Write the structure tokens for this entry.
Amino acid sequence: MSAAATLKSSVLGYPRVGNQRQLKKLIEGFWAGKVDESALVDGARALRTQHWQLQRSQGIDLIPSGDFTLYDLVLDTSYNFGAIPTRYQTIPAGLPQYFAMARGLQGAAAKGADQIVDVPAMEMKKWFDTNYHYIVPELGPEQTFQLTAEPSLVAHFKEAKALGIHTKPVLIGPVSFLLLAKASGESDFQPLELLPRLLPEYRKLLAQLAEAGATWIQVDEPHLGLDSTPATEAAYKSAYQYLADGLSPSLRLLLTTYFERVDDRMALISKLPVHGLHLDLVRHPQQLPGVLDQLPADWVLSLGVVNGRNIWKTEFATAIDLINQATNRKPLNQLVLATSCSLLHSPYSLEFETKLDSEIKDWLAFANEKLGELATLTAVFNIQQSAEPQPKRQSEVDAALEANKRSFAARRTSARVVNPQVQDRLAKVQPDMVVRPTPFAERYPKQKAHQKLPLFPTTTIGSFPQTKEVRQARLKFKKGELSAEDYRQFLLKETERCVRIQEDIGIDVLVHGEFERNDMVEYFGEKLRGYVFTQNGWVASYGTRCVKPPVIYGDIDRPNPMTVDWSVYAQSLTTKPMKGMLTGPVTCLQWSFVRDDQPRRVTAQQLALAIRDEVDDLEKAGISTIQIDEPAIREGLPLRRTEWEAYLKWAVDAFLLSSCSVQDTTQIHTHMCYSDFNDIFPAIQRMDADVITIENSRSDLKLLRAFDRYGYHNASGPGLYDIHSPRVPTVEEMNERLAALLNYLPFQLIWLNPDCGLKTRDWAEVEASLRNLTATAGEFRRRYADQA
Ligand code: MET
Ligand SMILES: [Zn+2]
């Protein structure tokens, strides 16, 4: 038999939570004491088995192992190498300690233990530019590493092997691991300095994998595509030389990059002693020729042509063109077809979407459908190589290619996607639509007079407690157990109560409370054309938490007002200004699955026009304070600094487009949270919101330094207390905080508010906290009375 050269397929990682979120239920049950450890371990193993078998049944050649975790893979890496911060070291090793690192622990150190502990969780951060959050390793200069006795990576490889499945272990490379870490404490220590201490443990791990029978190892070094420094370059060189020196001859290292291009890093990469390279060709197809030019002749190249982090079908014709560029230069057996990145960021399967419009459903591919795409694409190339003709397979493949072509042709011209009116409006956007006609210094006094605002005005960020009653009513309404009218009456009552309470507390600019909203993006998505919702499109956000992002499939427009009735009703209950509440275009974009057939910039612009219409309608209806939330503006930043400016230009323009049509007396607020905004301060200034309420309470000093460094010329309300904690802040601590702010900001421009929405808190905490907040306002109005 001639060993025909064939193209192999590879998956970089498979979603772990289970198609019915089984893992979430198991783990949360374990935390609640309802599932015991052995049930958790068995359930987790069953899921791994199911996922491996499923990938095998789809014909995937390089099936990942080590992509499964009970919380987070970066945390597992820290844990497996013994990087356990001191505060957790008294907690019994194993799951209690592991979960304490993940989510903190208040109470008994382990089930039935006498020892009582109170430790906060480790920090969580966004995984590159995805909406997944990893647990940030904490490493200090004294850190040593020690590979655990039974690394899960080795155990899982063996587990799959016992099922007859030879997997490709996946590990986070040593350099990226250290670059993902932060210095423990407040020091400036660079965790990368620990590389020499870490490498021997990586070598041990690789030796154990070799002994277990592994061949290809996927070593993820996503940082390779990011901005580099001489120190990081030196780190890659020494790390891979060290690993190569001790490498078992049976192991082959597949250096894996994603989310960025590496063609301009090939001078470095091509010198590393590894056996292959993976490219994200969905993000950067144009990097392929450059990489091929510089790729060592004997390396394997893994072509990431199936998008691991979106929900759209792969266009086969485009992928095949790309693959042909590689097959022209390399033999098939040196090429692999792969997902662009781990499928962790994709929902499971379209088979659970029974309610999705069939036209739109035909354009989509979730994780399992993506496996099928890989199978088809490899077959396209392999069938021709096979010794015997394969007419059946050939006709299947032909049919799949044809169906794919039809699907894309239909999507391109569908009236659901292309809306000529939206296109027309976009073409007519003029530069004067993204600037307020009057400068802040002139409009702000007009707004104060119009709204009769006192010095140190108080407000909140929008949502009030989403109590059990509110959630139950919504659920009943969705299930049809509560009529639309009864549900509406219920919400009107909640709103009224919320307004009365704010008046009673003495807040100056009120909100309606957002009781009608389940989620700040979903609410608007449901009312805009161009959005659809899935039933089961869950993707991991962090730990056991999953989110179900809405899908933007077509040109966006707003058939009807979305919030006007609620705001008008709430305003009718009070003579104080009622703030209208909208979610901004960039946040809608960031928290949705977005179109892959037009730039994000254009989708943001469409969203902005829709929100602009809402702003206009609110203003016409007499609402003269309007908040447009943009908590996600920073997370849209590109991974490479050189691209920040271009992003910030269109992102800020989108906000301006949504907000600039109003009169001088209409006051635009915006709100930001979730990250520190220091490195984008100039862009925030350019948004030119009259008032920005911004999360501050967890990173006080940093934010103030930024105010100091860049100056901020409009009004601002840096959060006076942290809404993430159930604690009621005292008047004294808020007084202190405000006094500190006054060292940096002019008193005439300061607003008093919590640092984010109050929906996760209960009413008792909220009332007490806000009463203290208004007491602080009263105190400072007295102190500044003669300057008012
Ligand atoms: C994540 S920012 C939340 C803003 C929203 N208006 C709220 O108050 O909940
Ligand atoms: Zn917020």
